[in-house]
């Protein structure tokens, strides 16, 4: 499998996915 | 003492813009430019004159951003880093920023010194340094996306989290 960080789009999409995951983590901590 | 948070926030923003701005410059502009410049024999212009200056402001802006952020958190610093007291949003942002700062000083800068010839290295060491610095830099771009989300929304935009 190719490393997503080798492409700019892969890097940005990785960051967006991480944002969604962390959003739910924070939401569950705050609720 | 009321001046401290206002000045810290201002400084945090200015240094943060410089840090992340240069991070995006490296990843969105310089990586591709260096590839093209190497192909036509003009890479030295970037590696000798642009990259060392950009790295100087990049790594010190990272330090100033972190320190100003810590000052801005003030007595909520521990609550933020332990994700307590309703500080989980900004706390995640602070953790991401801290990991990014460590990446700058422990991975990107020492390896860039080898790549740019500021520190002696064999060709094999330079090739390894190129890969490590590249991946650390790309990791920071990926981490900057949630970091900016939580920096911008974690403190005051509680509605985002349904609060």
Keywords for this structure?
heterodimer; A: 31 residues; mainly alpha; 1 helix; 74% helix; elongated; B: 163 residues
Structure description:
The complex is a heterodimer of chains A (about 30) and B (about 160). Chain A has one helix at about 10-30. Chain A has about 30 residues and is an all-alpha fold. The model of chain A has no long low-confidence stretch (mean pLDDT about 95). Chain B has one domain (about 5-160). Chain B is elongated. In chain B, helix 1 (about 5-40) packs antiparallel against helix 2 (about 45-75), helix 2 (about 45-75) runs antiparallel to helix 4 (about 90-115) and helix 4 packs antiparallel against helix 5. Chain B is built from 5 helices and no strands. Chain B is mainly alpha-helical. The mean pLDDT of chain B is about 95. In chain B, about 80% of the residues lie in helices and about 0% in strands. Chains A and B meet through helix 1 of A and helix 4 and helix 5 of B.
**Regarding quaternary structure, how should these chains be classified?**
heterodimer
* Rounded radius of gyration of chain B (Å): 18 Å
Unreliable sequence segments of chain A = none
Largest sheet of chain B, if any? none
Distance between the termini of chain A: 37 Å
Output the helix-strand order of chain B.
HHHHH
Share of residues in strands of chain B? under 5%
Shape of chain A: elongated
Computed over alpha carbons, the radius of gyration of chain A is 12 Å
Q: How far apart, in Å, are the first and last alpha carbons of chain B?
A: 30 Å
Class of secondary structure makeup of chain B: mainly alpha
What is the average of the pLDDT values of chain A? 95
Helix content of chain B: over 70%
The number of E-state strands of chain B comes to: 0
Taken from the alpha-carbon principal axes, the silhouette of chain B is elongated
